[in-house]
Amino acid sequence: MIVVGVDENGLGPLLGPMVVTVCAFRTPNADPEYLWRLRTPDLPADDSKVVFDRNRLARGETATLRWLSLFGVRPAHYAALAAALCAPPLVSLPCAGAGHASCTPVPDVSLPLWADPQTAVLPDEAARAVARNLNDLGVVPLALRLHALCPGEFNAVLASGDINKFRLDLSLMVGLVLHIASRDPGVPVLAICGKVGGMKSYLPWLSACVTGDWEVLQEHPQESAYRLDHRVTFRFIKDGDAAHLPVAVASMVGKYFRELAMHQLNRTWRPEGRPVSGYRDRLTAAFVDETAPQRARAQFPDACFLRRR
Is residue 267 part of a domain? Predict the structure, then answer.
């Protein structure tokens, strides 16, 4: 069967992209403990908030690049990473796809950015051990894929008022999972997702996302589960990134992509200043105010810089 971990990074910030990521494995056993056996000291996996720290980004980057390599993704720069992972935009972008230096992945951000290049790859002996482990377990890394919505796309999707950011998050999760499922028709798929917005009942939103035969398996505060067309099971689990390895890896990849995006945004608008996270805090508010004159001179629209919701 195929087990897909799904996670979101950056649902609530003021600046930078909202990233929804899927990480898929083919496995003979969907038990969480079985897949955790892939984790080793050389190949750590955990909730991205644990792996990454704003003062220790090198550690998170090293771990994430090592996981990316298992899926055949070995990017030399940020643009290559985006080309390997990103799904197409949902709507026509305000910039008509032309982008801007602050928000378009560019090749002059070489990877690794924070980590030592010598340690960002698995040592030969560790790589051989990982390969043996995958073979012994019968596990195959299948795919990594993500949606990264810049503020312009985020605002454009929500502009009609027909959808809020929680339903947007859910629709991106479902769409990415079904993309993975479409690659192997007939193979059972288990998608493990982080809870969205603290909801208990997802059925009305799932039905709005995808037409099909939806079956409710359970609805509890800790977990809500549904099956689509007797084949694709969605489990929405509280703290899923701490309990399931595929969700943890998805969380790490999404966090890494967002950190690279924020690095590019910071260096474009205030290269000499203290980097900001983009979250709704005092430092980000000051960054927005201080860069306003520069953005006005560049005719860079607020709708492409600031999220409206």
Answer: yes
b/e for 271-296, b at 16 or more Cβ within 10 A? eeeebbbbeeeeebeebbeebeeebe
Q: At residue 122, what are phi and psi to the nearest 5 degrees?
A: -65, 135
pLDDT of amino acid 161 = 83
What does the alpha-carbon distance between residue 122 and residue 115 come to, in Å, rounded to a whole number?
Answer: 13
Provide CB contacts within 8 A for 230, sequence distance 6+. 213, 215
Structural domain includes residue 176: yes
Report the alpha-carbon distance of residue 61 to residue 236 in Å, rounded.
Answer: 27
Which class for 308: exposed (0-12), middle (13-18), buried (19 or more C-beta within 10 A)?
exposed
Looking at residue 262, its pLDDT comes to: 96
pLDDT of res. 57: 94
CATH code (residue 293): 3.30.420.10
pLDDT for residue 94:
63
Residue 151 is predicted with a pLDDT of: 93
Confirm whether 309 is domain-assigned: no
Sheet holding 189-194, edge to edge: 140-149, 18-26, 2-9, 189-194, 232-237, 223-228, 214-219
- The per-residue pLDDT for 165 is 92
Pair 14, 307: CB distance under 8 Å: yes
Does residue 195 contact residue 240 with C-beta atoms inside 8 Å? yes
Torsion of Cα atoms, 45 then 13 then 17 then 78, to 10°:
-50
Q: How many residues does the chain have?
A: 309
**Amino acid letter, 34:** Y
| Per-run averaged pLDDT (10 residues), the chain, 309 residues | 97 96 98 96 92 86 97 96 93 64 86 95 93 97 97 91 90 96 95 86 92 95 95 94 95 97 95 93 96 93 90
- How many domains are there within the chain? 1
Q: Is residue 98 part of a domain?
A: yes
